[in-house]
Amino acid sequence: MYPFPHLYKRLDARHSICYVWFEAMHTRVDMALCHLPEAQACGLAAAMRDEILRIARFADRFNPESELSRLNREASRHEIKLSAELHAIISHCMDCHRRTAGAFDITVQSTPHIPHTIDHVLCNPHTGTIRFTRPGVTIDLCGYIKGYALDQVHRLLKQSPCSDALISLGNSSVLACGNHPGGQGWPIVLPGQAGRSVTLSGQCLTTSGNTEGHYHLIDPCTGHATSSTIPTSVITPDGSTGEVLSTALAVADEAQRQFIARSFQGQFSLA
Amino acid sequence: MDRRDFLKNLGAAGGTLLLASPWLSAFADVEHTRHSKARIGVVGPGSRGRFLMSFLKNNPKAEVVALCDIYRPSIDEALKMYPQARVYTDYRQLLEDKEVDAVLIATPLDVHFPVAMAAFEAGKHVFCEKTLGITIDECYKMYHKHLDTGRVFFSGQQRLFDPRYIKVMELVHAGTFGDIEGIRAYWFRNGDWRRPVPSPELERLINWRLYKEHSKGLMTELACHQIQVGSWALRQIPNRVMGHGAITYWKDGREVDDNVSCIYVFDNGVKLTYESIISNKFYGLEEQILGHLGTVEPEKGKYYFETIEPAPGFLQMVNDIEHKLFDAIPFAGTSWAPETANENHGEFILGKRPQGDGTSQMLDAFVEAVITGKQPPRIAEEGYYASALCLLGYDAIEQERILTFPDEYKLNYLNHHNPTTA
Ligand SMILES: NC(=O)c1ccc[n+]([C@@H]2O[C@H](COP(=O)([O-])OP(=O)(O)OC[C@H]3O[C@@H](n4cnc5c(N)ncnc54)[C@H](O)[C@@H]3O)[C@@H](O)[C@H]2O)c1
């Protein structure tokens, strides 16, 4: 028996769609995998689910057992040796902090968060270790790992016989591959844009923004939650860049926007 | 869903539909039979008989050519629909009518057996309302008479043709709701189940349901439809049954129970519970199919999942793809708020509120089978077991004993084997 609910619709002898959904990373995951036999589609979905759960296990700051939680608890007292994967993720995020003129910041959840808190994170590429030079620093990868997970899932998809798929992590990170069974690409209505839609193929759509009554986006310059509820959506070739840019652009001021446009030139478009 | 849509949908997903519901192959020759007609004689055109006739009236391939009833008002009402039909008062005369290809039996339960047996003997195809016979032995003999004569045999189990149920079984068999762990079937009504009687000597003819010589009460009249849903979902015949019945409210001289409950046990320990009370109608009727991943309520036409519901945007897309629409997929918001997902409203199986109950499709299938002379697979067997199981439940109630399905009444079907007929 399959480990998750799914709906399998056969369209004709060669065409089908398998819709799979489940919870992971504190959100819902929805996948539409086209034109595979049911068992194969469910097998692929199970492999992708396992991959998402694997990432969630080490990079979830809400799970006290995770590698990230241990880092947040102990790195202000001593240097922590990390798995190569988590080290690479954090290093990349810090690089993105520079490339977004500070608008993308994985330390906004620190107490207190003051400008340049991120400078208290010392990443040593040679030893694979990280140390915090101040207590209270907290690294939060919540949004970013959704994009990262989408990229890992994309890798699995490319190795599989499935070329037409739509995968959504929490509705905010969406990967569209190949085509919708009814036409070219995958047409998607943009969140909060009055029914305007885009057609994606081999791309990710990432959206950041507060939902009404739930202000979670923090401006790294002020340390306060932003109150705008207008979502920012970006289209990128990969999910990680999508997360970085949608988050950064949602809080960026005009100067930061121009900086981001230059440093990520050719790597994204605003949806 | 009209007949054309039903057939079209059938074509679109034929392969899997036929796996779950192989009798739908009755529609395989719809084009070839376009100019043919099935000539049908109705025995017992009472309330159900005339309801069935109203569907035949809509099918250009069907013609009711003869009517037989022992109660003149039933004949008079039926003639309003088919004024040209020949009228008989004895079913044996109707069976001698060479212009009748098939009979539709809608008499009280105790009259099904003699009419059906004689009809097969006379070379007629038979549509017999449920429950087939008033004892398992009668049902078994009717089934074998059908095999021996090679005539088409349908019973009035319309759920077998209800697009909703067909879809449900396709999903259930595909494992969508996980392992099926239980079936809870019930039918609750609040009423005395009586019909007005113009003159006292007609009591038993009109209120035949209430007397044991004519009917087995709630088990044969209601449970028969619903127990079949369990074996259809599980693709197994339950082998044990226990139960209890009583007259708890309508103590008005009736003989059959107004309050029954049975437990059917499948070989793997999964149970189908059946309950019918006719002095409280709050829960209505349902056959809840309980899987470890989700639940189906086919009467309501809805399904539910145990953990999280499917996303409306994706569901819409998948349904549209099935119906060949190409539209942008809406994503609800930037982040999913789990608080709002607690109320589990379920989703409609066919994407909309249920319409119809399969009766019209069932009769269309019968008409096709009469014209081609081909018995669709499994339909007689499903009818037989629906009848035999409700009667076994009745026997368990009457005897207050746990009963096992008798070997001598097994067919070679699903988990059942009968060495004497193999
Ligand atoms: N499939 C369903 O959902 C469904 C629904 C209702 C009834 N039914 C079945 O239909 C059958 C009839 O039920 P009903 O509600 O129409 O009953 P009814 O009493 O309205 O009709 C029965 C008819 O049979 C006639 N009849 C009785 N004995 C006869 C005989 N010896 N020869 C010829 N005619 C005779 C009666 O005069 C009456 O006209 C029953 O078996 C019942 O279980 C099935």
Question: Topology of this protein?
Answer:
The complex is a heterodimer of chains A (271) and B (422).
Chain A: E1 6-10, E2 16-24, E3 27-34, H1 38-59, H2 67-74, E4 80-81, H3 84-99, E5 121-124, E6 129-132, H4 142-159, E7 165-169, E8 173-177, E9 186-189, E10 197-200, E11 203-208, E12 232-236, H5 239-251, H6 254-263, E13 269-270
Antiparallel strand pairs in A: 1-2, 2-3, 3-7, 4-6, 5-6, 7-8, 8-11, 9-10, 11-12, 12-13
Helix pairs in contact in A: 1-4, 4-5
Chain B: H1 3-12, H2 14-20, E1 38-43, H3 47-56, E2 62-68, H4 72-81, E3 86-88, H5 91-96, E4 102-105, H6 109-121, E5 125-128, H7 136-149, E6 153-155, H8 163-173, E7 180-188, H9 203-206, H10 218-234, E8 240-246, E9 259-265, E10 271-277, E11 285-291, E12 294-297, E13 302-305, H11 312-322, E14 329-330, E15 347-348, H12 359-372, H13 379-399, E16 403-404
Residues 43-44, 46-49, 68-71, 74, 91, 106-109, 111, 129-130, 156, 158, 205, 221 of chain B line the site of nicotinamide-adenine-dinucleotide.
